[in-house]
């Protein structure tokens, strides 16, 4: 199969390209050439900005395009209009953030209520803007490729090369050992999908030219924050003392959920049973498979260790702030 990938050198795109090349597909990458430019020398590369340089793609043709970096409807509309006669099938990596979580119940599926940006974007709540834009991106694709598009809506994406540090934070922090501050939210559900499992499912569906919308997160059972921390302890093999701390105390002391303490979703922020309770039966029935949690975690820890102490993203609690909060707890 001749595949055009928009993006393709960071995290999800990287996993897609690795899997596509391993399967023997011919891959063309279209991106600005700024992130990991030396990756995948065996793939054809076209350097350009999707907002200005689509003409550099020429006439193709390709069997399919996989768009991994479509964040605004303006950018996606330009792409679909240019590619409408050059590809047969449009695959789009969207997000579960398209759903209006406040209007949904735990276990919602692909028919769930979507965010609607009714007015100017500058007037939209910041927490709705990302998902609302993705909704408009999906609609732009459906308008130009009706019956010839596949929309993948991932949840949190994890594994090696994660640039956010959300999942890696707890893996790396617990592997360092010592006293660890964390929210007393052991029973809270968590959901995510390994980028490589997401890539494999997307390519399986792409090879079959499947269409439709699929939520893609996991695992295939309820997983809790407490179990996640248990996995971190087993894989990290460090001597650690866990300080499970009252969430209200953390909020009062200006600890930011989800960013400073990744995966923690207090009720005041959003119902975690909804946000981390997405139904993925459709994707599982279509062939979505999950590698063991320990494999994702060990691979992530090995990658973190290769960074020589560099923090891969913005998420996570600053070590000095953690120590100050632990001292305050003991005062």
UniProtKB/TrEMBL annotation:
Protein name: NAD-dependent epimerase/dehydratase family protein
Segments forming domain NAD-dependent epimerase/dehydratase: 3-216
Source organism of the structure: Phototrophicus methaneseepsis
Upper lineage: Bacteria, Bacillati, Chloroflexota, Candidatus Thermofontia, Phototrophicales
UniProt xrefs under Pfam families: Epimerase
Gene3D superfamilies with a match to the protein in the record: NAD(P)-binding Rossmann-like Domain (3.40.50.720)
UniProt-listed SUPFAM superfamilies: NAD(P)-binding Rossmann-fold domains
InterPro entries: Epimerase_deHydtase, Lipid_A_modif_metabolic_enz, NAD(P)-bd_dom_sf
